[in-house]
Write a sequence for this structure.
């Protein structure tokens, strides 16, 4: 349909500006394709991104591959857990109990207990390293004849 006053063309079927060069069926197929693409984009956003919980931010963030779950928003610099969205200030203050119980990072350790456990793990690792170094030294010296008392003297 064409307006007699201004010449504007309208598609009577869609009640929109006329889709030049396309039959209504082609126009509908193009619209459906766009709707499908938008739905796929929405699905991607809901599965692969999360909205930053930073005060007043609301930007969608994407976690890079198998990166750490400690996220810092590039816009507002808010630190939070990717899995449960808890602010990392709370994690630093009260420890793993700040995470939601269904978060894989949740623990009932206090920060002091966590530090003590990590210190014990480091001490144990240093002990293993020292023991392995000593074993290597011993195996290296066993191959030297002087160390075994087999040194022959010229008389």
């Amino acid at each position: 349909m064409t307006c007699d006053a201004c010449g504007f063309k309208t598609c009577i079927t869609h009640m929109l500006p006329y889709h030049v060069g396309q039959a209504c069926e082609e126009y509908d197929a193009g619209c459906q394709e766009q709707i499908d693409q938008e739905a796929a984009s929405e699905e991607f956003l809901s599965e692969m991104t999360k909205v930053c919980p930073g005060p007043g931010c609301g930007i969608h963030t994407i976690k890079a591959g198998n990166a750490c779950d400690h996220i810092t928003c590039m816009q507002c610099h808010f630190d939070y857990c990717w899995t449960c969205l808890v602010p990392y200030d709370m994690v630093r203050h009260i420890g793993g109990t700040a995470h939601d119980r269904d978060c894989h990072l949740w623990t009932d350790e206090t920060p002091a207990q966590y530090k003590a456990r990590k210190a014990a793990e480091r001490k144990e690792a240093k002990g293993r390293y020292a023991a392995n170094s000593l074993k290597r030294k011993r195996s290296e010296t066993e191959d030297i004849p002087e160390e075994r008392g087999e040194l022959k003297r010229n008389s």
Observations:
- The mean pLDDT is 84.
- Residues 49-98 form one domain.
- Residues 111-142 form the longest helix (32 residues).
